[in-house]
Each structure stands twice: as structure tokens, then as C-alpha cells.
Design brief:
Elements lengths: L4 E9 L16 H13 L2 E5 H7 L14 E5 L18 E5 L5 H9 L3 E4 L7 H10 L4 E4 L3 H9 L5 E7 L26 E9 L2 E8 L6
Parallel strand pairs: 1-6, 1-7, 2-3, 2-6, 3-4, 4-5
Antiparallel strand pairs: 7-9, 8-9
Length: 219
């Protein structure tokens, strides 16, 4: 079944952290934030995990440039996000994907905000099925904005086609600081996801690296 073209976008420090151990994720330069908003404006949808909503409460709209807001998709198996999260505002359509572990009461509360709730039968949201459903809705390009756990699950299942990472000239360290990709990880370097470097560019004080993933679908 067809699915959207997926771009994983993130900002990280030179040591690969997307947030400090205290949760500070303000890594991008202003120039890179403008790039991100230009990219969002070109997408049909933007997707994040529940952890990103709980930690940062983003609106995931286009604000720094002129452009339309993409559909917002939250992968939230247990329906943990609050009904008053900024992503639930009427600026754009919001889809919340939940699993069978989500409480019926919370699902009704989320639906009452105007969000569309997509339910999946398993204990986790079936990401491939989710993307196929989104494609049927007309979503052809999707921007994945983390966090590290969702990034891992998408990469592990070969559901990412392109990676755009801006590297800030900063080092924050921290064993518990989140990295670009979390999860259990691959057991060997050889077994890891293979990428091809397409472009290197400078964005303000940051370096932007653009990769295509092995086996990626066409844009």
C-alpha cells in the first residue's frame, strides 16, 4: 500500500543531542527555524510523538514565514496528551493516533476538541498502517519532527525516506540527554540504516546535512 514521502527533520548539537538532560531543546538558530517553517509549509502533514507534546507543547504551525499550516499528527498510543495542548488549537486539523491501551473516556475528550482520533487494535500504533491511512486522506508528504523514540520506530520500520539534520556548534553532553534516534537501536553497525549524503549547506551558524535513506521511495 502507498504511503507518504517522509522527511525526518531535527536540530542537534555536535554531540548528537536533541535536548539536554533537563529537557531544553532550544538548539536551532533563528535561520534554521525559518528553514524549518519553510519546510513545514511545503508539507501536507507534520508528525510527532506524545513525548514531544508533553515536553515542549509545540503548536507545529507555520509562523516565521507565509504559508499554510500542515495537518498535525500525534502518535499517542495511550492518549496521554492533554486536551488543552497547543496542538489541539483550531489553527490546523489535528489527528491523534491511539492504541487499544487508550482509555475510552480520554478518546472522547480528545474528539470533543475537534481532533480526529484514529484507533488501532494493537498495544502500539501500527505506524505503517497509520501512514497508509494518511496517504488515503491525500497526505503525500509528511514531516517527522521526533522525538527520539518515534524517530527510532520509524527508521527501524524503514518508513523514513529523507533526513535533514541541522548541527549546531554546541556540545551539551549528558548520558540521559536525548539523542537524534533513541529506542533499542540496532545490534551492529553493519545492520544499521544506510544513508547517502545528498547535500551539505550552511544555515546561519548551523550546518545542514541532507541524506537519502537506502530503499527510500521517490519524492
Amino acid at each position: 500500500m502507498p504511503r507518504p514521502y517522509v522527511i525526518l527533520n531535527a536540530a542537534m548539537t555536535l554531540d548528537g543531542k536533541i535536548a539536554t538532560h533537563a529537557g531544553d531543546s532550544r538548539i536551532s538558530s533563528e535561520a534554521d527555524l525559518i528553514r524549518l517553517h519553510k519546510l513545514r509549509a511545503k508539507m501536507d502533514a507534520v508528525m510527532v510523538g506524545a513525548g514531544t507534546i508533553l515536553a515542549d507543547d509545540p503548536s507545529l504551525t507555520v509562523r516565521r514565514v507565509k504559508g499554510r499550516n500542515p495537518i498535525r499528527v500525534v502518535v499517542d498510543g495511550k492518549a496521554r496528551i492533554p486536551v488543552n495542548a497547543r496542538i489541539m488549537n483550531p489553527s490546523a486539523k489535528t489527528i491523534v493516533a491511539v492504541s487499544k491501551l487508550a482509555e475510552a473516556k480520554k478518546i472522547k475528550q480528545l474528539a470533543a476538541t475537534g481532533a480526529e482520533v484514529m484507533a488501532f487494535k494493537g498495544k502500539e500504533v501500527d505506524l505503517r498502517s497509520l501512514l497508509e491511512r494518511l496517504h488515503k486522506m491525500g497526505i503525500k508528504k509528511l514531516l517527522l519532527e521526533g522525538g527520539s523514540t518515534l524517530n527510532w520506530k520509524m527508521i527501524e520500520r524503514s518508513l523514513v525516506d529523507e533526513v535533514q539534520v541541522s548541527v549546531a556548534p554546541k556540545i551539551v553532553g549528558g548520558e540521559k540527554a536525548k539523542t537524534l534516534v533513541g529506542g533499542t537501536g540496532f545490534q551492529s553497525v553493519k545492520g544499521g540504516t544506510q544513508l547517502k549524503l545528498n547535500k551539505i549547506s550552511r544555515v546561519g551558524s548551523d550546518i545542514l546535512l541532507t541524506y537519502r535513506l537506502k530503499g527510500a521511495k521517490r519524492d
